[in-house]
């Protein structure tokens, strides 16, 4: 006789998948949409299971309701990409995955105790489950509170969590410098006065202003919240080492800083 998949097993697999995909979507930014398509599929599966088991427990009913909300948010995100929605959906998947794993283990333990086995261990396990549930609840409240803080008062939220201000000032006046490799570097050209941080640097290949060359325009990352044009890359190279690798290959380069969203 073939062994059937039990509901605790299915809940556990869904929870593990959500936990992995939710975390991956925050890290593997180049695969965000495909990861969230799979997250959407998992939430649809969760909703289907919840509707099949609806009425058994209040938690199942809550799963159906929350799953519906996340499915709608995922559809909005996939149709209209927005960073805040990405974070909300990713954290929802992580938290839901954690809760489903706990729920699946709890269901499996309960099935054993109904057969008269491991009653004492079950009580100890339930204490752990409730403790983990309380921690998850606190984390969920904190995340939702932070998102609401950003929505109501972006400046306050960003100042609390990011060390960033719109106060970039050049260390020296804009000058032309010929670097060791022959690159002409022009620092801190002010390209506007309406907004703060309106400065850019230009790197000209081989100190040659007359030749028309392809030009890269670099705009630093940071989600329009944080960041600067004077930063090391992930390999630890300075801005000059990184940008001159382009000028040595025959390209010109322009790098600018902009007003952050604070």
TrEMBL record:
Gene3D superfamilies: alpha/beta hydrolase (3.40.50.1820). Coiled coil: none annotated. InterPro entries: AB_hydrolase_fold (IPR029058). The chain crosses the membrane at residues 7-28, 34-52, 59-77, 83-103, 124-152. This is Uncharacterized protein. Keywords: Membrane, Transmembrane, Transmembrane helix. The lineage of its organism: Bacteria, Bacillati, Bacillota, Bacilli, Bacillales. It comes from Lederbergia galactosidilytica.
